[in-house]
């Protein structure tokens, strides 16, 4: 609990090392703490019970559901065609898409400094959107960011999201929400890349109605997912 109060997320592997005990013991203890409503169990570890406005850092998010995210971006890559102009927003899932993108005929617009640097190293034509950069998520936000995005059109956009319910896409930060909203409105098609942990989760700010995007996900079993499939296009991996 001390570690969660500091970092908001802790991995199972980290706890085994810190406590010098077995993985099965740690799992049982985490289950007990969750039953006492002291934390939330997630794949690979546990996270603090955050408020609607809280958001984990990229470092915390990068180790969660990594295998699911890799499957999602591998499928997302199939939607990118030669000479496309695409937007890739800041985030850990979209970072994995940047990792595997090799087509040098595409043009990529991004609001992530790290994404832009990697894309340039690959020889991919890159346009970086400026603005105030949030250190926790590596995202350019603010009026300058919105003004630039609203001057552009994209064949496709690939964005992440913190929460997905049967009606709305949501995220904790108002300024990031406005950027994602602008991207959705200026793209012919927007793909929201989300792993199973995002379904049923609701954050502070509504970004867009679920009908406005295509969901690309590894989720397939929840009741919310079945409702979403009735409202919008869903690509399952």
Automatic annotation (TrEMBL):
Domain HTH deoR-type: start-end pairs: 1-48
InterPro entries to which the protein is assigned, alphabetical: Carb_Metab_HTH_regulators, DeoR-like_C, DeoR_HTH, NagB/RpiA_transferase-like, WH_DNA-bd_sf
Pfam families with a match to the protein in the record: DeoRC, HTH_DeoR
Alphabetized GO MF terms: DNA-binding transcription factor activity
Taxonomic superkingdom: Bacteria
Keywords of this entry: Transcription, Transcription regulation
PANTHER family: HTH-TYPE TRANSCRIPTIONAL REGULATOR SRLR-RELATED, TRANSCRIPTIONAL REGULATOR, DEOR FAMILY
Name listed for the protein in its UniProt record: DeoR/GlpR transcriptional regulator
